[in-house]
Design brief:
Length: about 260
Amino acid sequence: MSLSAVVGETANQSLPRHVAIIMDGNGRWAQQRGKIRVQGHKAGVKSVREAVSFAARAGMQALTLFAFSSENWRRPEGEVNALMELFMMVLGREVDKLHQNGIRLRVIGDIARFSDRLQEKIAKAEALTAGNTGMTLNIAANYGGQWDIVRAAQQIAGEVAAGRMAPEQISEATFSDFVCMADLPAVDLLIRTGGDHRISNFVLWQLAYAELYFTPVLWPDFDEQHFSDALASFVSRERRFGCTGEQIRTLIAGQQSE
Ligand code: IPE
Ligand code: IPE
Ligand code: MG
């Protein structure tokens, strides 16, 4: 396989095709203002709206937002319930606007644990926007990166058991077909707000070669300016995909003279 096939267009840093965001810091934002944590989640909705609109205008193919992790059930019941209510409300209120803007909404995660009402609302929103050809907005809800990989392994095991796939056919490429977001480009850029430097079981497989960007800004304060700072940082980096810098620069010079 040629070097350019391995690296694709992504070494030549144009804007990322797929950005994933760990929207962290809502609770601290509220506490700093003497408010209860839930007020921070409510304030974070504005940042979600702004980030979606900005990503769509920037021509991104996909934006993936971590809304609720598989570990967030450990939080106090009141906070979990408030988050679910907020999710219901936002979904109901925003889906028409997403649809008008040609955005395709998908929820990734184990939604079977959500209430029937919420599951129905998710299914309706996904069905309404399924044919849209603009940006794909993935909301990760009850999502865990390890869950995603295990689920893929289970599905592949099922294929093998049914005789539709041989163990030798399991490769990085075929495995990739079974994880969430298989039809989208891998994550190019991961942003985490709130100052912590960890992945917290967000997308793992799809993050293999992502650039990581950490900012202390708390999610409710994260605006278009912060988002474009993250993109500027991404554009300035050289992604090498295991190659040498020299190889990548030669490749890019070749692409630019075509
Ligand atoms: C992120 O903000 C939102 C969710 C996890 C749902 P947090 O609620 O984790 O805020 P901090 O990290 O406690 O400030
Ligand atoms: C990650 O934030 C999950 C979401 C943003 C939805 P957390 O606040 O749950 O992560 P930890 O607990 O600090 O690792
Ligand atoms: Mg947090």
